[in-house]
Amino acid sequence: MFDSPPTLYRPFLTGRYTVSAGLYRLGEQGVPWVGPEAGAVVEAHTFALDREYPHFVESKAAAHRRALHEYTGEAALTPELREAALSFVARTLAEGSGGVLTWDGRTFTNHALGWVADLDPRWGAVENLRHFDAPLAPLIADLTPVNALDFLGLNAPEDLALVARRPEGGDWVVALHVLSPQHWDPREKLGRDFVAVHEPVAGSGPMNATAPRLVDAVVNRGPFVRFAWGVAMSDRLDHHPAAPRSADRAPQTRFDPDRAFLRVERQTLTGFPEAQGALFTIRPYVYPLREAVADPAHARALAAALRTMTPEQVAYKGLVPLLPGLLAWLDEVT
User: Fold this and answer.
1) CA 320, CA 205: separation in Å to the nearest integer?
2) In a domain, 76, yes or no
3) Cα–Cα distance, 108 to 151 (Å, whole number)
4) Pick from 171, 235, 167: nearest CA to 198
5) 188: how many CB neighbours lie within 10 A of its CB?
6) Quick count: other Cβ atoms within 10 Å of Cβ 98?
7) Model's pTM, two decimal places?
8) In-domain check, residue 30
9) Structural domain harbouring 216
């Protein structure tokens, strides 16, 4: 099935924490700090299907059962953008799966999860859903996707978001299927524009000032890939504010190197100019912190990056009670 280990990304090796677009052209520009050697690698893929796949499906299925309406929604999504984005998702997932997933323009089959359905990418319908025996079939045997976006989102490790742009100017989030949010509520983003979506992010002011140019670039000049990162005290994928609490960001939690994780989000941005919109994918990577900074040089870089955070950014990332112990440990490691 999917046996490759997840790629190790270390965005903190710049030695600075920044909130910026940080766009790299997929298939053209090398992404630095990739892999064990932390070298520059040109990446062309949108979806990453690796040995963590069952973990993502299990987590997404649990969120789906708990309260699907808290993670997904649409806001004036046009048939044209839905068709462009969902066709791209189905085709690209299948192309990168080595035959485990297949798509013929109408029927999508997942031979790992053991289900198949006919999809209408333009209107979002799911028809003729069938389950069959497969290695991971028990993970989704009781699920019934509500639409094509929901079905495809459950087949992908990545979360999915669609942004639309008005010809006369302006943008808004038109659809979300985000089952692995990192301490934010997807419902608060639906229908809002780029600036409003990112305004709560500490330090996002300079990036938001370029919002019209950024949205134009994403729609017309992509595809791109970008990264965000932080340190967490839990490896759970779903940190929806309404989900059951975990150790991460709990008031009593303190830094423990044996229970700490580096969480990196790999985000891709693919535009559909004729449909006046774009697809965002969000894939969390969660690594034990000891593994991520096993090299003392990497520990030094992480410490340096953390020390460039403003107090507002420390609070936004949930690091206020963790930072003293985290920095002391990193300094000891180096």
Assistant:
1) 22
2) yes
3) 10
4) 171
5) 12
6) 10
7) 0.94
8) yes
9) 11-228+265-288
Q: DSSP alpha helices (H): ranges in 182-250?
A: 194-198, 205-209, 211-221
Q: What span, in angstroms and rounded, lies between the C-alpha atoms of 306 and 294?
A: 17
Name residue 115's beta-bridge partners.
110, 131
CB 129, CB 153: distance < 8 Å: no
Tens-digit pLDDT profile for residues 88-137: 999 999 999 999 999 999 999 999 999 999 999 999 999 999 999 999 99
Cβ neighbour number for residue 24 with a 10 Å cutoff: 19
Taking Cα atoms as reference points, which of 174, 284, 271 lies closest to residue 219? 271
Residue 57 within a domain? yes
DSSP letter string over 23-62? -EETTTSEEEEETTTTEEEE---SS--STTHHHHHHHHHH
E-strand ranges in the chain read 24-25, 30-34, 39-42, 72-74, 101-103, 107-110, 115-120, 125-131, 159-165, 171-177, 224-232, 261-272, 277-288
| Both tokens assigned to 287 | 């690594």
For 251-290, the pLDDT digits (tens) are 888 899 999 999 999 999 999 999 999 999 999 999 999 9
Distances (CA, A) of 156 to 19, 55, 57, 94, 312: 27, 11, 8, 10, 33
Please state the domain count of the chain: 1
Q: 20's torsion region: left (phi>0), alpha (psi -120 to 50) or beta?
A: beta
Q: Is residue 302 part of a domain?
A: no
